[in-house]
Amino acid sequence: MVDRNGRPLSCVVSPANNHDSTLYTQTLEGFTFFGNKFKPIFISADPAYDSIKIRAYNDQNRIKSNIPINTRNTKDPENKRTVPFDPELYKKRGAIERFFSWIEAFKKIAPRHERKEESFLGLIMFACGIMIWRVLG
């Protein structure tokens, strides 16, 4: 999870055969700042996160969603769901793509040579620290 400027807020490491949407609640629950848990007010995500479970979680936690409808989830194309969606705000979601492009520049992170989750997460945190240091520096 990153903010609008592409700065990392929360990270969860899992095996590659898990879909990102199954880690949605874990990622949001992992969003802490100086030991205090925070919930975002607004989430903009790609259509892979369009599920009843994720939308229900967002509603229960008062998180506004800007997630387009995933056409692959619709069994009957004639019976279309309607959900609020702002395409102009969705364009700003590119921050996450820029973050992944940036983080993959670290040669040890992209192929994941580390066997232990803690070691890999440590490398990601180190890389993010370098990114923040360069921005503030």
Report on this model:
By secondary structure, the protein is mainly alpha-helical. The chain is built from five helices and four strands; from the N terminus they run H-E-E-E-H-E-H-H-H. Strands 1-2 form a two-stranded antiparallel ribbon. The chain has a two-stranded parallel sheet with strand order 3-4. It starts with 23 loop residues before the first helix and ends with a helix. The model has no long low-confidence stretch (mean pLDDT 78).
Quick recap of the structure?
This protein is mainly alpha-helical and 137 residues long.
Q: Strand order, main sheet: write it out.
A: 1-2
Sheet having the most strands: 2 strands, antiparallel
Overall helicity: 25-40%
Distance linking N and C termini: 23 Å
Question: Number of helical runs?
Answer: 5
Poorly predicted runs of 5 or more residues? none
Mean pLDDT: 78
Overall 3D shape: globular
Secondary-structure element pattern, one letter each: HEEEHEHHH
Q: Report the count of strand segments.
A: 4
Over all CA atoms, what is the radius of gyration? 16 Å
Kindly estimate the percentage of residues that lie in beta strands according to DSSP: 5-15%
Which structural class fits the helix and strand makeup? mainly alpha
